Amino acid sequence: MRILGAAVLFMESMVMGFALLLAGKHESGTVLAFGGVIALAFILAAGLLKKQLGWILGSALQIAAFFYGFFVTPMFFLGALFAGLWICAIVVGRKGEAARAAFVAGAGSQ
After folding, report:
1. Where are its TM segments located (predicted)?
2. How far apart are the C-alpha atoms of 29 and 35, rounded to whole Å?
3. Rounded to 5 degrees, what are φ and ψ at 50?
4. pTM of the predicted model, to two decimals?
């Protein structure tokens, strides 16, 4: 679950970096600073996924990335896309951890 989540967050930080390039032509320094903070926070959240704080921060950043679409319009679509990937990482990761735990429990009893 942690590996999938970290991959989603890291890729989203890269997408935010590209969004900053798009915003640089038309937006103010405040908007660029806000986008830069979001991009760096994605990397921080990816590193914190061992703790519950990382998952909470990652979920909050999904909302922030979506609302960055008010400044860079394609981020509405990309924010929604990555929010879906984030949810899939959580769901698939939990199923994978449950399957691994069942496998380990079964291998230990033999």
Report:
1. 29-46
2. 10
3. -70, -20
4. 0.85
Q: Are 22 and 72 contacting, i.e. CB atoms less than 8 angstroms apart?
A: yes
Q: Quote the CA–CA distance of 62 and 79 in Å, as a whole number.
A: 7
Question: Where are the domains positioned within the chain?
Answer: 2-109
**Cβ contacts of residue 20 below 8 Å, gap of 6+?**
32, 35, 36, 39
Cα 26 to Cα 15, 29, 36, 75, 104, distances in angstroms: 18, 10, 15, 15, 55
Residues 6+ apart with CB under 8 A from 11: 82
Q: Which of 98, 100, 7 is nearest to 49 (CA)?
A: 7
